[in-house]
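Aim 2 progress update. The chain analyzed this quarter is reproduced below.
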Amino acid sequence: GKVYVRSGRKMVRVDLNRILYIEAQKDYVRFVFDSGEPLLVHISMNRTEKMLPSAGFMRIHRSFIIQKSKVTGVRGSNVELGSIVLPIGPLYQRDFNRYFKHNKNFHTAL
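Predicted structure tokens:
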């Protein structure tokens, strides 16, 4: 799927399949794509979370939303997206563990 977001003075089409993770940065969010390039958008994290399909994305921290299919590993309270390691916040740990324990495509000792 795709969504449109305003970046600066223009609307930008974002291919949801290419998003690796999203990071909150004050009044902005930074979309980081699988190619590594970022896109800074003036939008709240809550609004961003609401526009994304929950089947594909998960909030793991006050500052991070990940694309579930991009997870390559879990180590303690950190999630790995290839070479990128992001923290799982205490408030999100339970839901994260529950999802990945029950996901047939992702077996790990959580």
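The first strand starts at residue 2 and ends at 7. The helical segments are 45-51, 90-101. These observations will guide the mutagenesis experiments scheduled for the next reporting period.
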